[in-house]
């Protein structure tokens, strides 16, 4: 059995954001085909060709952290801070690399890069049970349930969660 090299967490600069496309294409296919169907998922994936990577990196002030292993991006987390709230989105780890500490490491990088008086807020699909469990185990609490427009004209039940940055170890 070949042993994999450890993963490395680093910050992605705005000029390199197109490197996220292969990870997001794979992650979105893994995550959304069963939930949304192939047609909607394919349309979502097609938006990743835009300069703002499907709206995930619309400006140059977002923090984008990636987890790489063997020169391949295995996970990413995107955030931006506005008025004391660090909004977290674009948090994906390829399915076969989950439960290896990548998500926790990415989350800790986001937290470490922000003011300890901030809170972190995110929206997760209600059907993403494993993600919800991960966030709850990381200290997040549910603050609301609503519908989220995951694709133009396609609303999905979602949960907004929050956690104080000071609560992370």
Characterise this structure.
By secondary structure, this protein is α+β, with helices and mostly antiparallel strands. The chain has a single domain, classed as Gcn5-related N-acetyltransferase (GNAT) (Aminopeptidase). It has helices spanning 21-36, 38-46, 102-112, 129-137; strands at 8-12, 63-69, 72-82, 85-93, 119-125, 141-151, 154-164. A 7-stranded mixed beta sheet has the order 1-2-3-4-5-7-6, sandwiched between helices. Helix content is 27%, strand content 36%.
Largest sheet data: 7 strands, mixed
Distance between the termini: 34 Å
Helical fraction equals 25-40%
Low-confidence stretches: none
Spatial arrangement of strands, main beta sheet: 1-2-3-4-5-7-6
Name of the top-level CATH class = Alpha Beta
- Quickly give the CATH architecture: 3-Layer(aba) Sandwich
- Gyration radius from CA atoms, angstroms: 15 Å
Sheet-strand content, in percent, reads 35-45%
Number of domains: 1
What's the β-strand tally?
7
User: CATH homologous superfamily - what is it?
Assistant: Gcn5-related N-acetyltransferase (GNAT)
List keywords for this structure.
single chain, 169 residues, alpha+beta, Aminopeptidase, 7-stranded mixed β-sheet, 36% strand, globular
Layout of helices and strands:
Elements: E1 8-12, H1 21-36, H2 38-46, E2 63-69, E3 72-82, E4 85-93, H3 102-112, E5 119-125, H4 129-137, E6 141-151, E7 154-164
Parallel strand pairs: 4-5
Antiparallel strand pairs: 1-2, 2-3, 3-4, 5-7, 6-7
Helix pairs in contact: 1-2
Short description:
The protein is an alpha+beta fold and 169 residues long. It has four helices and seven strands.
